[in-house]
Design a protein that fits this description.
CATH topology: Aminopeptidase
Structural class: alpha+beta
CATH superfamily: Gcn5-related N-acetyltransferase (GNAT)
Largest sheet: 7 strands, mixed
CATH architecture: 3-Layer(aba) Sandwich
Oligomer: single chain
Number of helices: 7
Distance between the termini: 26 Å
CATH class: Alpha Beta
Order of helices and strands: EHHEEEHEHHEHHE
Helix content: 25-40%
Number of domains: 1
Shape: globular
Number of strands: 7
Length: about 200
């Protein structure tokens, strides 16, 4: 039997281990260097912005979902973003992930969110992933690609006057660069954003 509860700061070690396992599966090993229990505890402590649920079979943690609150005009207010969803390998296809998604949707209903979104791997990885069927079954609908601009170190680079050898902050060089870069060589974790249909509070 699967049981769930909200995460707390005391769960920081468990959350860290599960998210690290998720990142390893996604091939984002480089992202794990900055992931530690104190960082996780600090994020969990942001109780009005960051939420999470742990799933258990008996006393064993077998899954986690982390959700953050955002706001936008297109959402007509606040909405939720699933930032991490992980189930241990031997408990997959057992309904744990769906229970976690349902918990996040129920939280969104209580919070008055207009929708729930989740990022996904870029194509063709997404179309081959079993997660695509999971999210579609849960009522999500594809809404198109999502891009990111890493901001770590950006301020210091601007303070140094944007060295000529770094084209990232030069709009002309940036446009020329993106014209040459193919999808297969795009940096980072380019993703497809999935949007849950508006949550029915009934």
């Amino acid at each position: 039997m699967v049981t769930m509860r909200e995460v707390s700061v005391d769960d920081a070690t468990t959350v860290t281990q599960m998210v690290a396992a998720l990142l390893a599966e996604l091939g984002a090993g480089q992202a794990q260097a900055g992931l530690d229990s104190q960082l996780v505890a600090n994020l969990i402590a942001m109780k009005e912005r960051v939420y999470g649920f742990l799933a258990f079979t008996e006393e064993r943690p077998v899954g986690i979902i982390m959700v953050s609150e955002s706001a936008a005009l297109f959402a007509r207010g606040t909405y939720g973003i699933i930032t991490e969803l992980y189930v241990v390998p031997d408990q997959r296809s057992s309904g744990v992930a769906m229970h976690l998604i349902e918990a996040a949707a129920a939280l969104g209903t209580v919070k008055g969110w207009g929708q729930l979104e989740v990022g996904a791997p870029r194509q063709p990885m997404w179309s081959r992933s079993p997660n695509s069927a999971l999210y579609l079954k849960a009522g999500f609908a594809e809404i198109g690609p999502r891009l990111k601009l890493p901001l770590h170190g950006l301020v210091s680079q601007r303070a140094q006057g944007n060295p000529a050898g770094d084209p990232r902050l030069d709009p002309r060089r940036q446009r020329a660069r993106y014209r040459r870069v193919s999808d297969s060589s795009a940096a980072g974790f380019a993703s497809v954003s999935i949007c849950r249909r508006p949550i029915d509070p009934r």
